[in-house]
Amino acid sequence: MNKGKLIVFSAPSGSGKTTIVRNLLAKEELNLEFSISATSRAKRGEEIDGQDYYFLSTQEFKNKIKAGDFLEWEEVYRDNFYGTLKSEIDRIWKLGKHVIFDIDVSGGLRIKRKYPDETLAVFVKPPSIDELKIRLKKRKTESDDKINMRIAKASAELATAPLFDVVIENDDLDKALVEAYGLVSKFVHFKKKEH
Ligand code: 5GP
Fold first, then answer.
1. What domain range is 154 assigned to?
2. Which of 32, 72, 154, 189 could form an S-S bond across to 110 if both were Cys, CB 3.0 to 4.6 Å?
3. What is the 3-state secondary structure (H, E, C) of the chain?
4. What pLDDT score was predicted for residue 1?
5. Which residue has a Cα nearest atom 9 of ligand 1?
6. In a domain, 130, yes or no
7. What ligand 1 atom has the least distance to the C-alpha of 39?
8. CB under 6 Å to ligand 1: residues?
9. What is the pLDDT of residues 98-124, one digit of tens each?
10. Does some domain include residue 77?
11. How far is the CA of 38 from the centre of ligand 1 (A)?
């Protein structure tokens, strides 16, 4: 199979990585396709099954773990499983496209370890934990409990930033978008990764 490239965006929840990934997906010249993760968490707001995520029951998710269907998976929050199906990469590479991931820090690093030469791993850094809290509250999609759970995890996630290929600071979204475009464009147009 013709291998494309893998572009990972990881960050604490609320850092703005989803906005950055959506913006990049809209740039046709980058030839990117979104890796649709599987999750056992409940659908949120306007999310669509098979577009935002493959929504599975916890049992279905566990069956797929047993069957070895995942490239990586995590229990990101208690009882909330998330994972990348191996079939997703095949699907996208068959289309002749590059894969872009919006996944948590450990999943992102696992993909980089499995495909060191094909992967560009980008960490999106929020300005501060306080700002993160404000953004999550504004989003109004989760309860206070869930927001606190995400904040607690964020500090540990921030410590992993140096393990990524690049860190983008998202204190000004427009700047972060330009920076992300530059990095990805360079990576998909060059044959070899710079180590
Ligand atoms: P959310 O519930 O906000 O959609 O996602 C929660 C966290 O799970 C985010 O950090 C998101 O990037 C991460 N996530 C989404 N899909 C995957 C995946 O396939 N694998 C891993 N490890 N994390 C994921």
1. 6-189
2. 72
3. CCCCCEEEEECCCCCCHHHHHHHHHCCHHHCEEECCEEECCCCCCCCCECCCEEECCHHHHHHHHHCCCEEEEEEEECCEEEEEEHHHHHHHHHCCCEEEEECCHHHHHHHHHHCCCCEEEEEEECCCHHHHHHHHHHHCCCCHHHHHHHHHHHHHHHCCHHHCCEEEECCCHHHHHHHHHHHHHHHHHCCCCCC
4. 56
5. 104
6. yes
7. 16
8. 13, 37, 41, 72, 74, 76, 82-84, 102-104, 106-107
9. 999 999 999 999 999 999 999 999 999
10. yes
11. 9
